[in-house]
Design a protein that fits this description.
Helix content: 40-55%
Strand content: 15-25%
Distance between the termini: 16 Å
Length: 433
Amino acid sequence: METLDEAIQNARARYLSANPASMAAHKDAERYLPGGNTRAVLHYEPFPLTMIAGQGAELVDLDGHRYVDFVGEFSAGLFGHSNETIKLAIHDALDKGIVLGAPNSYERELAGILCERFPTIQQIRFCNSGTEANILALSTARAVTGRRKLLVFNGAYHGSVLKFPTGNSTFNVPFDFLIAEYNDIEGTAEVIRQARDELAAVLVEPVLGAGGNIPGDKQFLEMLKCSTREVGALLIFDEVKTGRLGPRGVQGLVDIQPDMTTLGKFIGGGLPLGAFGGKAEIMARFNPKLQGFLSHAGTFNNNVCSMAAGCAAVGQVFTPERAAEFLRRSEAYRSSLNEMLSRKMVPMCCSGLGSLMTVHFSKQPIQKPVEKSAVSRSLNTLLHVELLLHGVLICSRGDLYLSLPMTDEQLSKAYVALEEFVDRHEPLIARVL
């Protein structure tokens, strides 16, 4: 009877045999990059694949294998790898000059598109990533309120220096953080009450991404809005990932109006871009015509390639109508995965909303992030390697991100691969959980 460790060793042996070129590339990269890597989230054992090309919703690795791409650049790859409308916009911007050192027409157009798309964003400013957007939003809240404490949630990821997997991180920016439990209405309300005179803002993802794509309960999110209003703090929705869910992001789905919103990932059409915005009276603090304004600089804040790509991506390709349809299609697919897992009576589920989802090994529905046991982490490893060997690229922690160019056939390939994984390993999963 195969043990869990033996199953992982067997899968990794097949993986090693199939990917000699990626293994050699990884070893070569280790000479110059610590661990052969410059993005920690992309590392997995025994080595990550090296990708050399992408078309539509598929990728090709250094050994010539083709994959359906469910990593989706952790939601930034909404448009796939070769959208012609976005490519033409980038080429046009390149032809006209790329470092203009002045306001350009693209930033004005994209600002209008996003402010019209998200009614709670009355004015907006651009930056280069979701990480920057969240740091700037938190700094804005501190400046506007004159307070210093910031409330975040266990399991949240708001950027490379704003991560809270099981509390604060020594690598985080040195803000004064309070940490509460996601979807805990009473506990979080009490934290807000106790910090009422010192609390500048609450920063929350309406679907907790890195914590397992866990939707925020509407009553929980409504409590955050009411409680922050009562104590004079700002409510910031991090919609860097979730802005793709429906025509107006999750705030539109749950009809809750945050004071500020941060955006990133998909809004640059695949190129680096972030944004933060909100009520006009808040954003007016950045008006250089006013005395004592907040000076927000950044060489590439309005770089024409990202601006042009964003105008095409959000203005022409991912229209509100297409966003609504994509949400319906993606949620139907996620439901089909859960129906299959339920039918197989295996202790697994697929949490999330629409095109953002995570496969969990759990006997109970996932409502808040919990630290994974060693067994759950090992099962995630086994799932990840087995799906790679089936030509389905998912995140090593179990996330799947759908993209617009995915066909029914490509979605079916992942469905079948997951079903075959369950059929093969269900007895093992039942034994160890």
